[in-house]
Amino acid sequence: MRLRAAVLPVIAAVLVSVVLGFQVAHGGGDFAPAQPADPCKARVIEPLATGIEALGARLVFIGLDGAACRLHISREALVLRLAQPGERTDAEIDAMRAGLLDAVDRMKSEGTLPSASDLTDEALDNADLPGYVEWLIRRLPDSLVNGALKTDDVLRRVINDLDLRALLADLNDPDDITRMINAKVSKAVKDSLIERLRDLLPG
């Protein structure tokens, strides 16, 4: 027991020396807290999934950056502000909407927006439609769907119609912001797609 008691401090000292030496060798000697990313600089976002919900998540992520940039604060500060109780200001609402619309423009210019036909099956899977209507929509040619429906147009319509003030009023946890906005946007995109797809059916 005495030997163990004597050896443990030596081992601890060696481990500390090794860790500190590793940090210094790899540039860790000058420690500085990580700074929030500049929301005005476009960040590379690797798509981890496909579909309407993945599209909504990417839209919200980029949109929050755009809103934070307009408000001259970090994305993290904006998320914390939106989670505070109280009514949202007009500046916050305008910044959020503009940020989401800018996100659509960015994704379109980057070529990362899926075509409407790529989203049709998922939208139909969650729609409460008569069987024959769903059957007819699923058999519409992709060229017809993509010619009549542009994903960026659908997203802009959804964003402009979104009641952001009511949506943000329900937030009280920073972790809920992306999830709640994404859920609302995803549902609205599905509903908009179904509505406009039905208009393509004859008669």
Whole-number mean pLDDT:
81
Spatial shape: elongated
What is the count of structural domains? 1
User: Which consecutive residue ranges, at least 5 long each, have pLDDT under 50?
Assistant: 1-24
Report how far the terminal alpha carbons are from each other: 90 Å
Evaluate the radius of gyration: 24 Å
Q: Which structural category fits the helices and strands? A: mainly alpha
Assembly status: single chain
For the biggest sheet, the summary is: none
- Portion in helices: 55-70%
Continuous helix count = 10
Strand percent estimate? under 5%
| SSE topology string | HHHHHHHHHH
Count of beta strands: 0
3D architecture notes:
This protein has 203 residues and is mainly alpha-helical. It contains 10 helices and no strands. Helix 2 crosses helix 3. The N and C termini lie far apart (90 Å). The model is unreliable at 1-24 (pLDDT under 50).
Task: Describe the secondary structure blueprint for this structure.
Blueprint lengths: L1 H24 L26 H20 L3 H8 L7 H21 L5 H10 L5 H8 L3 H7 L2 H11 L2 H6 L6 H23 L5
Helix pairs in contact: 2-3, 2-4, 2-10, 4-8, 5-10, 8-10
From the structure above, extract its key features:
mainly alpha; 0% strand
Nutshell version of this structure?
The protein has about 200 residues and is mainly alpha-helical. Helices cover about 70% and strands about 0% of the residues.
